Amino acid sequence: MKIGILTLPLHTNYGGVLQAFALQMVLRNMGYQSEVINFVYPFWPTLKQKIFKVISFLLGRKVIWGYAKKYPLKMAPAEINIKLFINKYMSLSEGVRSYAKMKKIAKKYDAFIVGSDQVWRPKYAQYLDLFFLSFLNKADSRKRIAYAASLGTEQKEYSVKQRAECGKLIEHFHGVSVREKDAVEILTKDYRWNVTPSVVLDPTLLLDMSVYKKIIDSYEFKKNRKGNIFYYFLDANEEKNELLKFVCSLKNGTPYTVYQKEPNFFDAVINPLPAVESWLQGFYSSDFIVTDSFHGCVFSIIFNKPFIVLGNKNRGISRFKTLLENFGLENRILYSFDKTVTQSICADPINWNYVNQQRILLSKNSIDFLRKNLE
Known about the structure:
Layout: E1 2-6, H1 14-29, E2 33-39, H2 47-63, H3 65-70, H4 80-89, E3 92-96, H5 99-105, E4 111-114, E5 143-149, H6 160-170, E6 175-178, H7 181-190, E7 198-199, H8 209-217, E8 229-232, H9 238-251, E9 255-256, H10 265-270, H11 276-284, E10 288-291, H12 294-302, E11 307-310, H13 318-326, E12 333-334, H14 339-347, H15 352-374
Parallel strand pairs: 1-2, 1-4, 2-3, 4-5, 5-6, 6-7, 8-9, 8-10, 10-11, 11-12
Helix pairs in contact: 8-11, 9-14
């Protein structure tokens, strides 16, 4: 059986890339072939995006010529290290830029899995209907599965039209699972869809830590880490910087990160982001982690590293709640910086034996969902 995986485009999002990698690994371990369907957004690029691509190509070849000679640049140089990881560890389809192309390449798959990540959030999923498999005919009997599909937030973001269209499409799915408990409530009670979703783990949590350690060990790092408090902020601001400083003072530690500066236009054009392997090593090599990222929490858990998270309201709090509740770690989240609460969190040890046992149990249940619906 060959499975087509539909997830958000794999660009410069470490968590997004790793969840797709993990799902492919899990399917491979189950004996299935799979490809991530390589969406190239947007289907009809704007003039600004065309100009960006041309400048990216020209400046990229000039500034990082060594990469360009070895790897044809068909992306902004910021993506190069991410693409190298994808090419090494993952299987992708040819690029899909239109509905017609989607229908064409869909013919080679025996089943489809939608997920994980925020594939069902209109804010992030352009052409939302594609992630409900609108390109398949109603009579198509091939397996349609949603694995850990995420709405990302407890807010009801679908328009009336989207609720109606996607509600009809989801009725043709053979199995539906979501990543957050709030999503179950929204889909069944608020949107009133005819579906019974399960709640499963993000794919990254289904792999043993040794898988990620092997990836880290296979990479040749150019310099040693300096610091022991790793921080990873998707949306850096003064509040998060103050949190980091306070944690470092409590732990008598030194902060470090792989990439902190918010990239502007020219950064994204000429500066490759750090490698996925380097990002993973940031978590693995730390003594304590400060983050605002969902997958920042995930890899803190995988590597058994104590952490504190400042909930990223712009990107959705619901994801954090379900993740942390699964492992009895709901006390690790801050909704705003508070010194007293921060001090309490930093002083509270994590029962990693319980966390790891829960991960084994929940992973088994999640893989059983896939196995049951693929058979």
